[in-house]
Amino acid sequence: MIRHHHEKHLVQRIGWLRAAVLGANDGILSTASLIVGVASAQTGRSTILLTGIAGLVAGAMSMGAGEYVSVSSQSDTENADRAREERELEEEPESERRELAAIYRARGVDTETALKVADQLMAHDALGAHMRDELGIHEAMVARPVQAAATSAASFAAGAIVPVLTVLLFPGDRLAAAVTIASLILLAILGGLGARTGGASVARGVTRVVFWGALAMGASAAVGTLFGAHV
Q1: Cβ distance 179 to 167 under 8 Å?
Q2: How many CB atoms lie within 10 A of CB 124?
Q3: Helix (H, G, I), strand (E, B), or coil: what is residue 9?
Q4: What is the full per-residue pLDDT of the chain (231 aa) written as tens digits?
Q5: DSSP assignments along 26-82, one per residue
Q6: What is the enclosing helix (H) or strand (E) of 198?
Q7: 183, 189, 170, 171: which is closest to 221 by C-alpha?
């Protein structure tokens, strides 16, 4: 008796993981950089807070819209390929059978076996077999625009709220330093979690996100200090 063995693979997480990690990191980094830059210009606390909130709202909407447009383009391409395969399977089934068998032969399967495999897979799910083996479109990798957009917007807002809340908790003379430290700590945690979830090196994930985060906030602070001194 053949038992079905279901495995959870890391690639199945790539769609939502990419959008969530990118959104949260961008939310922390862009909002914290805005706040640090404005705070370095010696502006009032209310202005700094308003800047952070505006950055949170605008960034979340931008991330959601951008992700939706990007993933929708991918989805349109997948749907066009699917429609073409459906048409070819209906009009030229024998040609599609040989095409599928040729794919298996190229992978090292002998001709007779390749034809048998092609026949069996096409009898079970012809379109699915061609989408997967000819075009490389797997169910786990199918584009989902709404899911990607919602995940990006929500994760951006979740990340951006941290530097905004930090503005409320610390006085003006320590505000920029507090936002920088809190943001770098959270970036390090997210970088490590994202790397671990994706099966990558935790140390590498933490190092690269902290380095670029510190660089971005440092550049924002420098610009804020420079222009603040001349206003």
Answers
A1: yes
A2: 9
A3: coil
A4: 434 444 454 444 555 566 677 788 889 999 999 999 998 888 888 899 999 999 999 999 998 898 888 888 877 887 787 788 778 777 787 887 887 788 888 888 788 888 887 888 778 877 777 777 776 666 655 667 888 888 888 999 999 999 999 998 887 778 888 999 999 999 998 888 877 766 778 888 889 889 999 999 999 989 888 876 444
A5: HHHHHHHHHHHHHHHTT--HHHHHHHHHHHHHHHHHHHHHHHHHHHHHHHHHHHHHH
A6: none
A7: 183
> Is residue 139 within a helix (H) or strand (E), and if so which, with residue range?
none
Give the whole-angstrom CA distance, residue 42 versus residue 163: 17
Rounded CA separation 181/35 (Å): 13
Closest CA to 55 of 207, 159, 134, 151: 159
Closest C-alpha among 6, 4, 5, 16 to residue 140: 16
The token pair at 95 is 């040609």
Instruction: With H, G, I as helix, E, B as strand and everything else as coil, classify residue 5.
Output: coil
Provide the residue type at 218 as one letter: G
Nearest CA-CA partner of 141 in 150, 151, 131: 131
Q: Please say whether the beta carbons of 35 and 54 come within 8 A.
A: no
Q: How far apart are the first and last CA of the chain?
A: 79
Whether the Cβ atoms of residue 224 and residue 37 lie closer than 8 Å to each other: yes
